[in-house]
Amino acid sequence: QHLRAEMPAHLLQEEMSSSYTTTTTITAPPSKILQNGGGKLEKALLHLEEDIRPEMKDDIYDPTYKDKEGPRPKTVYVWRNIILMSLLHLGALYGITLVPTCKLYTWLWGVFYYFMSALGITAGAHRLWSHRTYKARLPLRVFLVIANTMAFQNDIFEWARDHRVHHKFSETDADPHNSRRGFFFSHVGWLLVRKHPAVKEKGGLLDLSDLKAEKMLMFQRKYYKPAILLMCFILPTLVPWYFWGETFKHSLFVATFLRYTIVLNATWLVNSAAHLYGYRPYDKNIGPRENILVSLGAAGEGFHNYHHSFPYDYATSEYRWHINFTTFFIDCMAALGLAYDRKKVSKAAILARVKRTGDGSYKSG
Ligand SMILES: [Zn+2]
Ligand SMILES: [Zn+2]
Question: Which sequence ranges form a coiled-coil region, renumbered to this chain (predicted)?
Answer without folding.
Answer: none
